[in-house]
Amino acid sequence: MMGRVRFTKGHGTSNDFVLLPDPDGELELTPALVAALCDRRRGIGGDGVIRVVRSAKHPEAADFAGEAEWFMDYHNSDGSIAEMCGNGLRVFVRYLLEKGLATPGPSGLPVATRAGVLVTVVGDGTISARMKTPRVYAGSTATLGSLTVPGLAVDCGNPHLVCGLHDGVELSALDLTRAPLHDPAVFPAGVNVEFVEPAEPLAGVDRHVRMRVHERGSGETQSCGTGALAVGAVALREAGLTTGSVAVDVLGGRVRVTCDADGAWWLEGPAVLVADGDVDPAAVL
């Protein structure tokens, strides 16, 4: 029987995670345990679980060990595995720093993920992550009840569908308690769906938008980092801009997406650790 397990609770714009230190990859992290830990009544509660493991000790990350010491092993709240989580990445880096497990170098701190090795930079109260370049590759639709909204498919290392609201449909009125229907031919592995409306002009950015998101495997969340990246990419594209910044307001706060002059895409926002503790897996399962 597995003994008590240490954990840390953290969030990025209220997208919250249970972080499990497992540097040598010894923890048996089953889908059932992940779902139990994320249960907001019987467990700790979270949108996902992040196992903190050395790249060399995880079979999916061993090839990255020469580039990044640590691997972000991310799992959705239903126990399924996700390729990437932008808010989770920033919280993961905050954990490494506060626990003394890593020190940023001159060019930042690299982290191995299922989307590859990504570099992060620590700012004044925020953490920025250089993300995989988002790729807008198809048109599709999302359906909520009787409402069907056209959108654009965006690959951010994981799949997204960005749907702009029109014709008087209000973002706050959407019912995201159930997953939007999508085209399985375009998204055979499921999709994160973002609904977007324009917001008032904001100094210091080229575009300002609001979004809500239904995440594959987690339901509606307060924020989604890769979702914000997808939304930022579409917003700049629709504005005819190849570089620039987009402020993305989510239910849990605000993040900033930037495509710089070198063509690098960055996601910037807060990352906070709120509690440490230990949990008995047998008590939550």
Automatic annotation (TrEMBL):
GO terms for molecular function: diaminopimelate epimerase activity. Signal peptide: none annotated. It is an enzyme of class 5 (isomerase). Pathway: Amino-acid biosynthesis; L-lysine biosynthesis via DAP pathway; DL-2,6-diaminopimelate from LL-2,6-diaminopimelate: step 1/1. SUPFAM superfamilies: Diaminopimelate epimerase-like. It holds the Pfam family DAP_epimerase. InterPro entries: DAP_epimerase_AS (IPR018510), DAP_epimerase_DapF (IPR001653). Its EC number is 5.1.1.7. Substrate binds at N15, N76, G86, N87, N158, N192, E215, R216, G225, T226. Its main location: cytoplasm. It is found in: Cytoplasm. The keyword DNA repair does not apply. Belongs to the diaminopimelate epimerase family. Catalyzes the stereoinversion of LL-2,6-diaminopimelate (L,L-DAP) to meso-diaminopimelate (meso-DAP), a precursor of L-lysine and an essential component of the bacterial peptidoglycan. Homodimer. This is Diaminopimelate epimerase. It comes from Actinoplanes philippinensis. The lineage of its organism: Bacteria, Bacillati, Actinomycetota, Actinomycetes, Micromonosporales. The gene is dapF.
